Amino acid sequence: SGTGYMVCANHVSFLDIFVLDAVLPSRFVAKKEIASWPVFGMISRGVGTLFIDRSRRRAVLEVAELMSSTMKKGENVLFFPEGTTGKGDVLLPFYANLFTAWPMAEAEILPVTLRYTLKGETTTVTSYAHESLFTVLRRIVSTSGLGVEVTVLDPIPSAGRERHELCALASARMTAAKEAQRRARLEAATASRAEA
Full-prediction pTM beyond 0.90? Predict the structure, then answer.
């Protein structure tokens, strides 16, 4: 089994954890407030989420130690380095704090990008950036044609690198992947229009 991956992904929606767990089973790192949310708190506690109290400086080191011990057991640990949800069309700046866990576990970083679609086009329907959870949930269940694309990128070896470098590499790799995918979609749309 070996060491698990330290999976980092962009964060768009509460759906991310379900989507990512289906593709790449992982333990998740989440802010402690989620533990008290209706329904999602119970689910997150039930799947062994590692909660972090972001109001305490020491909490980052404590959760990094938990992440490390989990990866050493062969389990993947997933976190969202943006530290919040975005609309999903672009990556937000990454925070390097949780990249601290890699040297303790000697784990590779596995970058993953998420893109939600509506009838094949990028959509922000699933994003709960600046909206209530239940408003977004209502919108999701009443919208047909939603989809999601998960792109698992090549692992980043962590040996000999410090957390800021790993953070920058993961961000650059994920940004490049999202841009390449965007260009490919534009080229496909242009070719499709040319054939019509």
Answer: no
